[in-house]
Write a structure and sequence with these properties.
CATH architecture: Roll
CATH superfamily: Electron Transport, Fmn-binding Protein, Chain A
Number of strands: 12
Largest sheet: 7 strands, antiparallel
Shape: globular
Number of helices: 4
Low-confidence stretches: none
Mean pLDDT: 89
Distance between the termini: 29 Å
Strand order of the largest sheet: 3-2-6-9-10-5-4
CATH topology: Pnp Oxidase, Chain A
Order of helices and strands: HEEEEEHEHHEEEEEE
Length: 174
């Protein structure tokens, strides 16, 4: 097999396996906002820490900097249109819950609302924030997980190379 050099290393990153997609909620009351994110990663299993990478250019970045909590909501394919929509309009201009008819759901531990239509909600207390290149990572300890009854890991959306996808075939179980 012959390998060829990719001139733009940013394109090389697009060859990484898929990233999970999340609708991140942050803020309280009327100030609550949603941002679509694909830079989501587990940073620790014990304690359970999850990180979201958000560009400082985004309206939600300011909210995430100010607030002590956020919720990572995992959408399914049934709300793909809404997921795309939340990533294309700024929450500084519109109420994304209202615009995309997403229902705020009281979270169980944090004050930030969850999204009723999402398959899973990971309620997080922010523990850290650091900068890596053009994104800042907000790390949160998962203090509550709520999932639809019957949810399977393969029900969540993935983002890969500009495309939204569903998880593929399992080739080996652990």
């Amino acid at each position: 097999m012959t390998k060829e050099k990719i001139e733009d290393n940013r394109l090389g990153i697009r060859n990484m396996p898929a990233f999970p997609v999340g609708l991140i909620t942050v803020g309280k009351g009327k100030e609550a906002n949603i941002i679509t994110a694909a830079l989501i990663h587990v940073f620790s299993f014990d304690p359970p820490l999850i990180g979201i990478g958000i560009s400082p250019k985004r309206h939600s970045h300011g909210l995430l900097t100010k607030e002590d909590e956020f919720v990572v909501n995992i959408p399914g394919k049934d709300i793909l249109k809404e997921t795309l929509g939340c990533g294309t309009v700024s929450g500084s201009k519109v109420d994304k819950f209202e615009l995309h008819e997403l229902k705020k759901l009281d979270s169980r531990v944090v004050e930030t609302p969850s999204i009723e239509q999402c398959k899973v909600s990971l309620e997080c207390k922010k523990t850290d924030m650091f900068t890596t290149g053009d994104h800042d990572w907000f790390i949160g300890e998962v203090v509550m997980t709520v999932a639809d009854k019957g949810y399977k890991r393969g029900d969540g959306l993935l983002y890969w190379g500009g495309d939204f996808r569903l998880p593929g075939k399992v080739i080996k179980e652990r």
